[in-house]
Amino acid sequence: MNLMEVNQTDHCLQFSCPERSVSPLYVFLCLCAAAAVLITACGNMLIIISVCHFKQLHTPTNMLILSLAVSDCLVGVFVMPFHLSRLTESCWIFGSNICLFFVLISFFVTSISIYNVALIAVDRYFAISNPFLYIEKVSVSNICIVILAMWFLLLSYNSALLYFNGNSRGLIMCPEQCLIVLKEIWSLVDLVFVFVVPCSAIILFYALVFVIAKKHATAIREINVQSKGSKNMADSMKSERKAAKVLSILVAVFLACLFPYFVYATLSNAIETQSFHNLVILLYLNSSINPMIYALFYPWFRRCIKIIFSLQIFTTDSALINVQS
C-alpha cells in the first residue's frame, strides 16, 4: 500500500457515514434542501424562459443575464441536490461515477457563474462609458460568441485542472465520501483564475461605473437647477443614491457569498468539516440570490412573470408582447 492509499484509507475511516435516524431535524433539513433547489432552479428557469421567448428582450445585456441564469440553473439542478444531501445523509450515497461527475460539474458551473457576473460588469461599464460606440459595436451575435467562447474555455480549464491534478491523488471516492483535494499549486492557480481575476474585474468595472454614473447625475442636476428648479435636483439626487445603493448590494452580496469559501479553501486543509460545508452552501446559494439581484430589479421581469403564470405566453404572437413599457 503506497502513501496515497494510506491517506485515502485514513479519510475513509475518519469520515465514515453515521447511521441516519429520521427525526424532526432530518425532515426539516430535507425540506430546506428541497426548497433551496426549487428556488434556484425555478427562479433561473423563469429568467431563461423570459429572455428566450420575448423578442424585445433579445439584447446583448440580456444575453449575459441568460447565460448567468443557465449556469445558476445548472447549479440548482446538478450541484445543489448532491451537496445538500450531505446535510441530511452525512455521507456520499451516489457512487464513484456520480462523484466524478459531481466534482467536474460543480467546478465548471460555479466558475461559469462567477465569470458571467464579471462579464456583466464589463458590459455595463462599456455601455455607460461610451453608449454610442457600444450600440454600434456590441450586438447580440457578438455577445453570444463571447459567451460560447467563455463556456468552452472554462470547461477546458476545469477538465485540465482535474486531469493534471490527478484523479488518483485528488479525488477520494470512499464508499461513503466524495472529496476533492487539490495540490497546492493547482489550488493557487484555481484561486487566481476563478476568484482573483473575475472579482478584481467586478470591483474595478463597477467602481468605474459608479464614478461615471455620479458624473452623469451631477451634470443632469446642474442642468435641472438652471432650467427647472430644485424639485428636479432633488429627484436627480434621489436617483443617484438609489443607483449607488443597488450597486453596493450587487457587489456586497456577490463577494459575501464567494470570498469566505475561497479564503477558507485556500488557507485550510480541512476539506470535510461542517464549517467548510456551510461555506460551500453559501457559495451555491449565490445562484439562488442572483435571479433576485440581476432580474427582480428589472420591471420587465415582473411583467414576464405575470404573463407566464397567467398563461398568456401560450397565446398567438406572445413573443411580441411589449414587456418593457
Polypeptide structure, described:
The structure is a single chain. This protein has 325 residues and is mainly α. It has a single domain (24-320), classed as Rhodopsin 7-helix transmembrane proteins (Rhopdopsin 7-helix transmembrane proteins). 79% of the residues lie in helices and 2% in strands. The chain is built from 11 helices and 2 strands, in the order αααααααββαααα. It has a two-stranded antiparallel sheet with strand order 1-2. Helix 2 (24-53) runs parallel beside helix 10, helix 3 (60-89) packs antiparallel against helix 4 (96-129) and helix 8 (184-227) runs antiparallel to helix 9. The protein starts with a helix and ends in a 16-residue tail after the last helix.
- Report helical residue fraction: over 70%
CATH topology heading = Rhopdopsin 7-helix transmembrane proteins
* SSE order, one letter for each helix or strand: HHHHHHHEEHHHH
The largest β sheet comes out as:
2 strands, antiparallel
The side-by-side strand order for the widest beta sheet comes to: 1-2
Question: What is the radius of gyration?
Answer: 23 Å
Low-pLDDT residue intervals, each spanning 5 or more residues: 1-11
The average pLDDT score comes to 76
Number of strands: 2
Shape-level CATH architecture: Up-down Bundle
3D shape: globular
Distance between the termini: 69 Å
* Percent of residues in beta strands: under 5%
Structural class: mainly alpha
